[in-house]
Amino acid sequence: MGRVCTVSDSVVVGVTPEVAYRAVSRPSDMGRWSPENLGTAGATGEGAAAVGTVFVGRNKRGAFRWVTKCTVTAADPGRRFAFRVHAIGLSRPRVRGPIATWEYRFEPVEGGTRVTETWTDDRRKWPDFVANVFDRVATSGSTFAAFQARNISTTLRNLKRELESSTG
C-alpha cells in the first residue's frame, strides 16, 4: 500500500466564516494554535495574507527547530486560505523543493462555521520507502500523515477555543 499523502479534519466554530478566515489568514498568528508552528520570521504584516505573499514559518518539534519558506496560493475571504511550503532549513530555508500544501476551508453551518484544515504531502517524487523511513525518523515513529492528523486535530481544537472565547 502506498503512503497517505492527504489528511484533513474539521471543527465547527461559533463565529462567522469571515472571523475564522481573518484569524487563519494571518500566518504570523498560526503559532497560537499549532502544536508545531511558532508563527513567522520577519515582517508579514498584521492583516490577512494575499495570494503571492511569501513568508518564513518558524517551527519546532521537541528540541528541534527549523524554518520553511511558504507562498500563499489561495486567499478567498470567508471561504478558503492555502499556502505551499517550498523550502526548508535550520536557520534559513535553503533546501528548495515541493514539501507540503496547507489549506483551510470555511463553510457556514448552523451554529457558526465549519473550518476544515487539510495537509497534502507534496513530496510525490520521493519513493514510498524513502519517505516512510524519513518520516519515522523525523516524527519519532509515525508517518507524516498520522503525525499531521494529530497536529491538525490539536490546531483546530485550539483555534475553536480561542475564537469562541474571544466572542464571549
Blueprint (SSEs and pairs):
Elements: E1 6-13, H1 17-24, E2 37-41, E3 54-61, E4 64-76, E5 80-89, E6 95-109, E7 112-121, H2 128-138, H3 144-167
Antiparallel strand pairs: 1-7, 2-3, 3-4, 4-5, 5-6, 6-7
How would you sum up this structure, described in words?
The longest helix has 24 residues. This protein is α+β, with helices and mostly antiparallel strands. A 7-stranded antiparallel beta sheet has the order 1-7-6-5-4-3-2, with helices on one face. The chain is globular, with a radius of gyration of 16 Å. It contains 3 helices and 7 strands, in the order βαββββββαα. Strand 5 and strand 6 form a beta hairpin. The model has no long low-confidence stretch (mean pLDDT 90). 26% of the residues lie in helices and 41% in strands.
End-to-end CA span: 47 Å
Task: Tell me about the largest β-sheet.
Answer: 7 strands, antiparallel
Outline, from the CA principal axes? Answer: globular
Helix content: 25-40%
Q: Please provide the ordered H/E string of secondary-structure elements.
A: EHEEEEEEHH
> pLDDT below 50 for ≥5 consecutive residues: which ranges?
none
Number of helices: 3
Mean pLDDT: 90
Structural class: alpha+beta
Radius of gyration: 16 Å
Number of E-type strands? 7
Strand order of the largest sheet: 1-7-6-5-4-3-2
As a percent range, the share of strand residues is 35-45%
